[in-house]
Amino acid sequence: MSSKNLLYLTKIESEDFIYIYKWFSDKEFLKFYDYMPPVPQNIKQVDKTFEDYKKNEESIVFAIKLFSEGKIIGIAGFDDIIKENKVATLFIGIGNKNLRGRGYGGETLNQLLDYGFNKLGFYRIQLNVLEFNVRAITLYEKAGFTKEGTLREFVLRDGKRYNLHIYGLLKNEWISR
Topology of 7-176 in CATH? Predict the structure, then answer.
């Protein structure tokens, strides 16, 4: 799907959860992954989260796997899908901290955008990102996302308040980039 072709997006398998459990118990991963409080989750809580994803028609979650190893390195997908409006919220989490900053997020983003716009027929893909996640913001802006708004001091992390930025990308903008 992408020019680099180092990774692929696929269904999450039961053997992937040994890694997912580790990531969702890692406060540092959770700090960047979501705007919800980065509270480590136990196995039962993680299982419930992913069961909810499976049952919910408003979410699609993929394992990010390297072709070279076939091992999961993160998760990505779409949340808050509104089929009637052809809109979804994108998310990416590279769980393996040794593999962050190597371009896997960018390749994942390109594959998600291709899948969302061309296979699922989305017109708009949006995302939320915390102001301190500079690497992600750089990636999203490079991919053509436009900052559309800021929820001021929306998140409390380690006793300090942070803004949550909202970005959007329309299909015609993505095609013309």
Answer: Aminopeptidase (3.40.630)
